[in-house]
Write a structure and sequence with these properties.
CATH topology of the largest domain: Jelly Rolls
CATH superfamily of the largest domain: Exo-inulinase, domain 1
Number of domains: 2
Largest sheet: 8 strands, antiparallel
Distance between the termini: 37 Å
Length: 251
């Protein structure tokens, strides 16, 4: 016997056999997610991925906890490099406007990275577990604006996370973002700023309804805001592992 019924927002599938009954719960809207996963190779990302390793998992290198070890398998993208190279960053082939983003990441000691919506608006990823008063350039912060010359430096305070929800280095962490893109009129003039509607790190809400008057980092000076842009995962500031990266359009 096979029975399918809707229970709230979940789809209940019951499969009965002679000696047992299996009950499987499947999210009714799971099909809405676009999965940018590692076992599809680099098909979801621009470039050839030469700086990235396909893996089944990543763990701290016990002989040097500033490094990661990639375990064999699929589904995880690992950058083992300490070199600053644009090849160590991931830019999605697809572009997006209003989206939800789910990213799972793992850092070694002292490393940092970032998730940039439309390649412009960054939520910082950094090994800052245990810091009592997090700043905007700590894990979960909305990264400040910056200037590149005479040398790279921050020029404002950004938006710190409400609390420090970061886990220790070597543990998998979960970042969920709801992002609303900027709006433009027919002539291309911006009529509404972009917003982080909600940002959740490791099941803790760290931002709600934050208006973004300009791009973060040095992008505020070097790049134009757009209605749609790619998802950008940073990997050029030290080793980082990503898995279960997916996006869902906000209608």
């Amino acid at each position: 016997m096979r029975r399918i019924c809707m229970l709230g927002f979940m789809l209940l599938v019951c499969v009965a056999h002679a000696s047992c009954i299996q009950v499987l719960y499947v999210c009714a809207n799971e099909a809405d997610w676009i999965l940018l996963k590692g076992d599809q190779g680099m098909a979801s990302w621009q470039g050839d991925g030469r700086e990235w390793t396909q893996a089944g998992d990543a763990i701290l290198d016990e002989t040097n906890t500033k490094n990661l070890i990639a375990k064999s398998g699929d589904g995880v993208l690992v950058s083992l490099s300490h070199e600053k190279s644009e090849l160590s960053n991931l830019t999605s082939e697809q572009t997006f406007g209003d989206i939800e983003v789910h990213v799972e990441f793992l850092l070694p000691n002292g490393s940092n990275a970032g998730v940039k919506l439309q390649g412009l608006y960054e939520i910082q990823i950094r090994d800052t577990h245990g810091k009592e008063k997090p700043e905007a350039n700590d894990c979960g912060g909305i990264y400040p604006r910056a200037e590149e010359k005479p040398r790279y430096h921050l020029i404002d305070e950004g938006v710190p996370p409400r609390v420090n929800a970061a886990k220790p280095a070597g543990e998998w962490q979960v970042l969920d973002i709801e992002f609303l893109a900027p709006r433009f009129d027919a002539e291309g003039k911006k009529t509404q700023n972009a917003r982080f509607r909600k940002v959740v790190l490791n099941e803790v809400v760290i931002h709600e309804d934050v208006e973004l008057k300009w791009p973060t980092g040095h992008a505020w000076r070097t790049k134009s805001e757009v209605a749609e842009g790619p998802l950008y995962l940073q990997g050029d500031h030290g080793p980082i592992a990503y898995r279960n990266v997916k996006v869902r359009l906000i209608e």
